[in-house]
Amino acid sequence: MPGIVVVGAQWGDEGKGKVTDQIGEQVDYCVRYSGGNNAGHTVVVNGDKFVLHLLPSGILNPNCTTVIGNGVVVDLEVLSQELSELDARDVQVPHPLLSANAHIITPYHRVLDKVTERFAGKRRIGTTGRGIGPAYSDKVNRIGLRMQDLLDPTGLREKVEASLDQKNQILIKIYNHRPIDAEQVADQLLSYADQFKPYIVDTARKLNEALDDNKVVLFEGAQANHLDVDHGTYPYVTSSNPTSGGACTGSGVGPTRIDRVVGIAKAYTTRVGEGPFPTELLDADGERLRTDGGEFGATTGRPRRCGWFDTLSVEESTQINGLTDIFLTKLDVLTGWDRIPVCTAYDVDGERTSVWPMTAEQLAVAKPVYEYLPGWTEDLSAARSFDELPATCQAYVHFLEERVRCQISGIGVGPGREQTIVINELV
Ligand code: GDP
Ligand code: IMO
Ligand code: MG
């Protein structure tokens, strides 16, 4: 009954899509359990690049059933478009199963996301503008719309109306925005009902039955540990629980059914949007990492902030997620540096610490303390076993492994599915 969780160990974009796709061949079910189309997961198969936002990355493996779990917020238009885009590229995929309890992102959530960010000015979060925060707020406020509401058009219309009665007041009076027409919104949402109805199921039961049958279920995290609303760099976080606990609540599968939790960590660090990032490089070195790593957002195209590997940040993820394994991605990008700094401590108000700070205030003033490891000049992209890596590169991997207190079971040496070094099999 293997249940495997893949989770981002830093601030997102670590390569979760690639790893999910790469193990997808051995997986029966691939489940998204949190977030929405704020995610951008890149998969490269035989040189063809796919960027998936809502569809689970297992979808390109023909034998994998994909599931959008109850913890996800679903923009119906985006889901429909993503499926059409694959179809237009002549990639035939089975339709994902959709949790009846997953919440729907409506056009008013997207509007609210944008106007609140604009209103916040300097205090903005730097969201993806996809309506994620407002949709989760409605969920928690118990005024959200769910996939199952597509089965009851009259009820859906009433809920949209009730929600807009209140939101239009806010839009007009606070944000100086024109009101949104409830009927138009309901019509638009219901225009997807016929397409999605056949796939709205009790996905929690389906997944538990699959695990009973000894099927392999992969829970594909979006975002990352430090973007988690509980454990991340609040308030600069997303509005859900991307951490491994979220795989249970976001899918309806209990913690006893999870066997492995794989943290995906980049060999350096990136972040998109606002918020603290102690090892960020604002100089030519940061620019070099961005260029070498192609660090531009898969969802919004924004340049990603870049910096060195931070062992405190990833060790924190080891703890919060109960990681059993780490998959280290983009090691190939570090080729060509004489020496590679790794942050192994912070100075916080004159005190040295080797653990992630407790408060936002401490993190804001934390100064990274680096150790310097020798680099390598060899191109790694063709390596397929650990032994093929240069000695200094092997030493870099071992150093990180020790500091983050988790075994490194796989290494990425390029974006392609096959550009992977397996140290311990994940399935
Ligand atoms: P995700 O959001 O965690 O799925 O990651 P993204 O897809 O947003 O960003 C990761 C980027 O790195 C994508 O462009 C991937 O194709 C690419 N990538 C993933 N693993 C590797 C790797 O090991 N080496 C290199 N060079 N690129 C990689
Ligand atoms: P994947 O799954 C990187 C960031 C946004 C912003 C904050 C809140 O591709 O790793 P939101 O729109 O969620 O309310 O934005 O979270 N963010 C991501 N950063 N990768 C992601 O997803 C992200 N999803 C959200 O940039 O700082
Ligand atoms: Mg991404």
Q: Which structural class do the helices and strands define?
A: alpha/beta
Low-confidence stretches: none
List of distinct ligands in this structure: guanosine-5'-diphosphate, 6-O-phosphoryl inosine monophosphate, magnesium ion
Fraction of residues in helix: 25-40%
User: What would you report as the Rg, rounded to the nearest angstrom?
Assistant: 21 Å
Number of helices: 13
Principal-axis shape equals: globular
Query: In percent, how much strand structure appears in the residues?
Result: 15-25%
Question: How many strands?
Answer: 20
* Biggest sheet descriptor: 10 strands, mixed
Strand order of the largest sheet: 9-7-5-2-10-1-11-15-19-20
> Mean of the pLDDT scores?
97
What is the terminal-to-terminal distance? Answer: 11 Å
Can I get a quick summary?
The protein is α/β, with parallel strands linked by helices.
How would you characterize the overall build of this protein?
A hairpin with a 7-residue loop joins β19 (408-412) and β20 (420-422). The protein starts with a strand and ends in a 5-residue tail after the last strand. 32% of the residues lie in helices and 21% in strands. α5 packs across α6. It has 13 helices and 20 strands. The protein has a ten-stranded mixed beta sheet with strand order 9-7-5-2-10-1-11-15-19-20, with helices on both faces. Strands 14, 16, 17 and 18 form a four-stranded mixed beta sheet that branches. The structure holds guanosine-5'-diphosphate (GDP), 6-O-phosphoryl inosine monophosphate and magnesium ion.
